[in-house]
């Protein structure tokens, strides 16, 4: 059994293999970085309040419903049920809130409403959706702020 090695450059084959493995390793690292990036805010826990994006990070690593969160400004908050929505004109409430994503709503004062989403796990997303409406002045999840003593 004679093998003809003429025309085959083994060194070039090894170099090509190393380059291929290196490219695969780079791709794997990029995929891992994107899938694991920003674990602090991986749950999309952010909302927009008066034009500013507010990010929430769990204070500890637990997944309890009573979790406290910390904003990027260091304010401790807890997420309560519902979304606080301020309309530009309170007469538009029926038009804004008659969508399937809204379970119910009640007027708190003036043009400010407490909206209960049909799916409580989507209140951050729904809060941002309301802001896309030209009829809404402000919208954010209902938050309980930690009381600070003086």
Describe the structure.
The chain has three helices and seven strands; from the N terminus they run αββββαββαβ. It is of the alpha+beta class and 150 residues long. It folds into two domains: 7-37; 39-145, no CATH class. Strands 1, 2, 3, 4, 5, 6 and 7 form a seven-stranded antiparallel β-sheet that branches. The radius of gyration is 26 Å and the shape is elongated.
Keywords, separated by commas or semicolons:
alpha+beta, 150 residues, seven-stranded antiparallel β-sheet, 2 domains
Tell me the number of strands. Answer: 7
How big is the Rg? 26 Å
Q: How many helices in DSSP terms?
A: 3
How confident is the prediction overall: mean pLDDT? 81
Q: What would you call the shape?
A: elongated
Low-pLDDT sequence parts: 36-42
Q: What is the structural class?
A: alpha+beta
Largest sheet: 7 strands, antiparallel
List SSEs in N-to-C order.
Answer: HEEEEHEEHE
Give the N-terminus to C-terminus distance in angstroms. Answer: 92 Å
Beta content comes to: 25-35%
Approximate helicity band: 25-40%
In total, how many domains does the architecture comprise? Answer: 2
Describe the structure in brief.
The chain has 3 helices and 7 strands; from the N terminus they run H-E-E-E-E-H-E-E-H-E. By secondary structure, the chain is of the alpha+beta class.
Secondary-structure blueprint of this entry?
Elements lengths: L9 H27 L9 E4 L2 E7 L10 E3 L4 E12 L5 H5 L4 E8 L2 E6 L5 H9 L4 E10 L5
Antiparallel strand pairs: 1-2, 2-3, 3-4, 4-6, 4-7, 5-6
């Amino acid at each position: 059994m004679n093998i003809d090695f003429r025309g085959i450059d083994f060194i070039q084959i090894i170099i090509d293999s190393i380059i291929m493995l290196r490219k695969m390793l780079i791709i794997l690292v990029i995929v891992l970085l994107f899938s694991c990036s920003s674990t602090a805010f991986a749950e999309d826990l952010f909302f927009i309040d008066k034009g500013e994006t507010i990010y929430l990070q769990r204070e500890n690593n637990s997944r309890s419903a009573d979790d406290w969160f910390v904003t990027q400004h260091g304010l401790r908050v807890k997420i309560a049920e519902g979304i606080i929505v301020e309309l530009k004109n309170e007469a538009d409430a029926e038009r804004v809130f008659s969508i399937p994503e809204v379970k119910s709503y009640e007027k708190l004062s003036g043009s400010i409403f407490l909206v209960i989403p049909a799916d409580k796990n989507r209140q951050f997303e729904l809060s941002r959706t309301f802001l896309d409406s030209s009829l809404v002045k402000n919208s954010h999840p209902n938050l309980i702020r930690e009381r600070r003593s003086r």
